[in-house]
Known about the structure:
Layout (H helix, E strand, L loop, with lengths): L4 H27 L28 E2 L5 E8 L2 E3 L3 E3 L4 E7 L5 E5 L5 E4 L5 E6 L4 E6 L12 E6 L1
Parallel strand pairs: 2-5, 4-10
Antiparallel strand pairs: 1-2, 2-3, 5-8, 6-7, 6-9, 9-10
Bound molecules: dinuclear copper ion (CUA).
The site of dinuclear copper ion has 8 residues, from loops.
Amino acid sequence: MKVAFYERIWMWAATAIIVLFLGAIFVTAAAQAVQPPGHIETIDPAAVLSHPEFGTPVVTTRPDGSVVVPVVAGMFSFTPDPIEVPANVRVTFRLTSPDIIHGFQVVGTNANAMAIPGYVTQFSVTFPKPGEYTIACNEYCGLLHHNMVGKLVVK
Ligand code: CUA
């Protein structure tokens, strides 16, 4: 089969681009650990509601003044709700789900993570501005996904 010179160049260029893109996916997956934040910590999703931390999640303050907020994101609400945290203090969210994947996005801030059954997702953020923020589930989780909202009060 005779393939024109320029056509061969484009075939090789297209192949190189595909290899580059696939390589980028594998490298970032391996080197940047594409997995839930705090992925080392696992939890039995069936036992979330009787778990000492997540059974009745409450906001606690550490001796250094930082705040820890365990959150259960389940169909179709967040617990606790509302969540009250102080402004200008490091707030560590610890999320999990007893059922399926949910999103946890504090609208208007860069707090945005997934609650994944079987894992505890942990991330820290500081809210400089007091006020009321909407927490939205941004992963489609079922018929009432659009109703899955919570409130964060920063004081
Ligand atoms: Cu939970 Cu959408």
